[in-house]
Records
---
Amino acid sequence: MSKLLFYPRLAWLCFKLTLNLLFLSVELILADVNKKSLQGIVLFALLAASLVSNLYLWRLKNTPIETAAETPSIFSTENNAGPTKKWTLSPEQVGEQMAFYQSLEAKGVQNKAVFLNLSNISLALGESEQSETYLMKALRL
């Protein structure tokens, strides 16, 4: 719970500090002091630096850690995180596998592995839209 309240407390403290610096600078500017113009400039510079640093910290706090460009797509062909053992199937075997998994789907089997295999077989057959459909079904489970 304390981690959750850290940023609001920090923001409130920064706001109070900025407000106090503003009131102090207004009081010193309005006071009759020998070096009135120099103190006003220094206090204005401190106030501006405080505001700029607060805005900078606010921007850093709200910056996402991972950007969308760095996130790999689930449909990317550059992702080589698949199994290391490759199987080579003949076109007949691919057709048999496709028929088998489609029969499982027709029977109402709702299994992530079934849909992933259907997606891979469809992709191997060049049916990318069907492959994406099966992949989305697998992701929903």
Note: Residues 116 and 135 are 6 Å apart (CA to CA).
---
Amino acid sequence: MLQIQSQIQIMPEHMKAFSFNEAEMKITLSTNGESACWVEATVAVPRPLSLAPDRSLETGKMLFGILSNGAEREKRVKIFANGDVYPNIYSVKITLFIYDESGAISERMEISKDIECSDQNAKVL
């Protein structure tokens, strides 16, 4: 049986609202299964955030390739904010598709990671 472990990091953890800025999301996958597998992922960000710096792009696809016993793969993707991003917590959704040796989808994993956009200039009362 295939066993995939995932680790997701977003740096920086907080983005500024009302300004153009970016964060980098790092997805690390590792396996300790006995057989090899092929892994693909889709990344979806909510509307005010984007996967492209100059236009709205809400969904992207990443190919991790073949993971064999004890292998570890890492992919990075940038998340962009523009002037329309309000202070809020946004949820980034990652869907992993794991294919077995026969080419059939053996497992589908859905993971979400929150990223906070805050107004650094706001005064706390």
Note: Strands lie at 4-11, 14-16, 21-31, 37-44, 49-50, 59-67, 72-81, 88-99, 105-118.
---
Amino acid sequence: MTLQELRPILRMSALSGLALTDCDLRGRFFRSFDREGALVSLSLTDCKLSSTRGLDEFEGLTTLTLLRSGEALDFSALSGLPALRTVRADPDTAGALRAALAGSGVSLEITEE
């Protein structure tokens, strides 16, 4: 799926969790949500991302999973998310996430799947 095809779903006000696999999310993915503060769980697997702009607005996010998605992006906004407790990532993404989460108290779990 593409970002354009997902827009109706991303604008649902009751959306609290979202898991996407094999999606092209290049563009303004994190800015495409209507009620990002209500989202508590986000999982992206094999998704293409080009930016993390807007990630800092996901104040209710408690769990984030990034598997083979966004390996080369700047995830420094994660350290400022007040509810974030756990980030799961594959080894290739973990390096960037480890630096972004340093000193934040957020648990980084490295997984293959």
Note: The mean pLDDT is 89.
